[in-house]
Fold this sequence. Notes:
Pfam family, one: Ank_2
Strand order of the largest sheet: 1-6
Number of helices: 9
Structural class: alpha+beta
Largest sheet: 2 strands, antiparallel
Helix content: 25-40%
Keywords: ANK repeat, Repeat
Order of helices and strands: HHHHHHHHHEEEEEE
Radius of gyration: 20 Å
Distance between the termini: 61 Å
Amino acid sequence: MVEWALQNGVFDLNQENVAGLTLTMIAAKHGYDDIVEVLVRHGANVNAVTKTGASALIIATEMGMRCTVELLLMLGAHMNIRTQTFETALIKAIKLGHKSVVKLLLDYGANFGCPQNDNMTALDYAVACKSTDCLDVLSWHIARLTTEFENQMLVTLNKTAKIVSLIFPMQCFALSEGHKFKVVFQHELQPTRVGAGMLLFIAHTQLKPSKVQCRFYGACAVTSVTLNGVILHAVTKVSFIILLN
Length: 245
């Protein structure tokens, strides 16, 4: 019936109701997956947000609608949209203890390392909310990414260097969500030591439920990196390893 109406009439699919919700948001809230798909495929903006910054994905996450969340992700919903209170879908899922939604978002590459307005990351929230199930899922995901990242880093550098400490937590950005990404961090510079330096490693990563693959060389979608307004350069022409100092 919905599809027939869309084919035989003229509608503003992004029109908000008095509560500020679009049709896609309402359908997502109630888990009406067929209607969500029809609306988006007929031009509804899957990434429209309310006045408080909530998207259909965040609303479905809040309701614990795992199937709807996955459908929205398949339809191009952005995982890292933040509400006015800086909550992403991942943070929302962790706070509410929706373990299956947390795992799904992580499998799709949700950014777990980006701090919120209170400087807490997804891992911090999992600990603070005492959500053991979510903490286990998150810890396992971070561990497997970190292991693959460090292993490939060692291979790329021929085991000539190792990571001593992190300037900021690992960040995950989906190329489908835009072409500009920003990480805000504070770091107190230490006296330079011989044989030590700061490098930014950018890995192209493929995430699968059973496997993680990343690389630091080859074709790259990253065109430039700036730090405090200064353009930085890669160590070699074919690598994604940036010299910070």
